[in-house]
Amino acid sequence: MSEVESEADEVAESEPDEAEVAEAGRDEIWIEKYRPGTLDEVAGHDDITARLKRYVERDDLPNLLFSGPAGVGKTTSAVAIAKQLYGDDWEQNFLELNASDQRGIDVVRDRIKNFARSSFGGHSYRIIFLDEADSLTSDAQSALRRTMEQFSSNTRFILSCNYSSKIIDPIQSRCATFRFGPIGDEAIAEQTRKIAAEEGIETTEDGVDALVYAADGDMRKAINALQAAAVMGEVVDEEAVFTITSTARPEEIEQMVTHAIEGDFTKARKVLDDLLTNKGMAGGDIIDQLHRSVWEFDLDDEAIVRLMDRVGEVDYRITEGANESVQLEALLASLSLEDE
After folding, report:
1. Is 80 part of any known ligand binding site?
2. Where exactly are the structural domains of the chain?
3. What band does 189 get if pLDDT is binned at 50, 70 and 90?
4. pLDDT, position 232
5. Do domains 32-179 and 250-338 have the same CATH topology?
6. CATH architecture for the domain at 185-244
7. CA spacing 20 to 30 A to 1: which of 20, 35, 154, 215?
8. CA-CA distance, 133 to 83, in Å (whole number)?
9. Strands, DSSP E only, in the chain?
């Protein structure tokens, strides 16, 4: 056999067939695969995207400040703006920095200024996207304010943060502020059903409801949970979602609280122990679910007020480093004693 034929055989053996390529595609991260490419595709914020589309249509973009919780479309909206403004050249005209990794004043002085100064053609301005801008130090924010003034003729800034109150006032006053709230349940349910259909995954109604509940307004969390649950079996149902996300069912949380309020501390503690030990939930997650679900419980107003007062105190103590199990048991014990 000639060397050419031998090499050809080796190449043929190394190349995957179509079935292998299709199966490999299932390994792709769905939050990236289904990330919206345009503002029209961004779900759950019609009022915000309508205003942003007007900026893009007029090619008249101000400095922007996006604030809101994780997974609600802030970064996606910034990238979509760049893609619609610059087309195929968007990566050359869009600089993305994560301020939580690069928090110092040198980042503002060096990378941002170098990008803002660099020459480019075909567009009147470029975009610098600064993610998690509330992690910048005060000195870095002051330097950024000066940079925004210095390069206002050829650079636009999009700042993304979780808490706009951590952004200094001089920067806030130079930006059009958009506040992204948690994504609505209907939008999350619609998107998860769409992705499931695209991937050929069967979902049940209670499975979709569980995805919506576990996501709590975070689209990224919902899509990640869908992908993880899809690996567990042919059907994504409630059991698969709650297992993969380590989330307690609302009825389990309600049962635990109800037992405590009725004075049966032993039963309440048993439910808590199951959540912490068998389901592996963190104490902070249980507190979050309590806070989210308390108004859906069949409790009178007085009991809800007592519960919320104790939830706030326990949340603070756990945040400060107290033992989660001890604090949660103390919460249940106090509810049981108050009933007596």
Report:
1. no
2. 32-179, 185-244, 250-338
3. very high
4. 77
5. no
6. Orthogonal Bundle (1.10)
7. 20
8. 22
9. 64-67, 94-98, 126-131, 155-161, 176-179, 202-203, 235-236
Phi/psi-derived region of residue 246, left when phi > 0, alpha when psi is between -120 and 50, beta in every other case: left
Q: For residue 294, say whether it is annotated as part of any ligand binding site.
A: no
Class of domain 250-338: mainly alpha
Residue 4 assigned as binding residue: no
Q: Which two structure tokens, joined as six digits, stand for 213?
A: 């509940």
71 is in an annotated binding site: yes
Amino acid letter, residue 58: R
**Does the annotation list 245 as a binding residue?**
no
The annotation status of 68 as a binding-site residue, yes or no, is: yes
Q: What is the pLDDT of residues 76-115, one digit of tens each?
A: 999 999 999 988 888 888 988 887 665 566 766 777 778 8
Tens-place pLDDT, residues 285-314: 889 888 887 887 777 788 888 888 889 999
Q: Does the annotation flag 69 for ligand binding?
A: yes
42-63 tens-digit pLDDT: 988 999 999 999 999 988 899 9
Q: Is 122 annotated as a binding residue?
A: no
**Amino acid letter, residue 264:** D
